Amino acid sequence: MAEQQRKPRKLDPVWDQICEDARAAVMKEPLIGGLVHSSILHHPSLERALSYRVAMKLSSDEMSPQILREIADEAYARSPELGEAGRADLVAIFERDPACHSLMQPLLYFKGYQAVQAYRIGHWLWQQGRRDLAYLIQARVSEVFGVDIHPAARIGKGLMIDHAHSIVIGETAVVGDNVSMLHSVTLGGTGKEDDDRHPKIGNGVLIGAGAHVLGNIRVGSCSRIAAGSVVLEEVPPCKTVAGVPAKIVGEAGCDQPALTMDQILNGCPGQ
């Protein structure tokens, strides 16, 4: 009986580059070999590496890494879009953050990336009706990373959270694709009503450090919110708002502010 042919491995340039980065890092600094092998090189895919990394970061005496890893493995196996979002988030950080020099770095070291991937698993649990586990992951992400994202919030792909300290995203918030935000951003409510009470952020929006967007308002795609602003009213697409309370101060300055990360109010270079 002829030996059955092996199915060709699906191409995965993001994972292949991560593994190449990992091998190069071990050659340069052998002392991190144990971390790199256990977190990356021991695994056959990004999804399995993420399951391991999230489990190791969030485990505690109350929940073992083995149980958390099984939860994450199930999520990635049953929801392939989680892995797709994880890849898009990695590429977003690599392309937009000048402090990121390899695709390996966010996976190993960047708490913003790790927190968002853990949130994505919690959101999957929430959608499955497993809300106590989702709340547990939210609580551990807040304790470990200082990032508090409600598991019911809906977040698109290609999210970059730079530094990621003190991020708060509420229950009914919606964040579009290819959004960039810096530390201490709040997407919050304005009262105690139990309904749709949090912001809706369009695609390609750039939110500066310390900005607060409050209430069930829409922030149009490809707009910019200046650092330290308090946004209480709707923001049209492709505008820049600044101040307390925030007002429109000009155009967004470029087609994709979240990609260029340009926060100068007089526009992007060349405008």
TrEMBL record:
Gene Ontology molecular function = serine O-acetyltransferase activity
Biological process, per Gene Ontology: cysteine biosynthetic process from serine
Q: What is its EC number?
A: 2.3.1.30
Q: Which superkingdom, per the lineage?
A: Bacteria
According to UniProt, the reaction catalysed is: L-serine + acetyl-CoA = O-acetyl-L-serine + CoA
Q: Please provide the record's keywords in A-Z order.
A: Acyltransferase, Amino-acid biosynthesis, Repeat, Transferase
Q: Where is the signal peptide?
A: none
| Any coiled-coil regions, as ranges | none
One GO term describing the cellular component: cytoplasm
The record's section on Pfam families has:
Hexapep (PF00132), SATase_N (PF06426)
Which pathway or pathways does this protein act in?
A: Amino-acid biosynthesis; L-cysteine biosynthesis; L-cysteine from L-serine: step 1/2
Which NCBIfam families does the entry mention?
A: cysE, EPS_EpsC
Q: In which family does this protein belong, per the annotation?
A: Belongs to the transferase hexapeptide repeat family.
What is the protein name stated in its UniProt record? Answer: Serine acetyltransferase
Organism expressing this protein natively: Boseongicola aestuarii
Lineage, highest ranks first: Bacteria, Pseudomonadati, Pseudomonadota, Alphaproteobacteria, Rhodobacterales
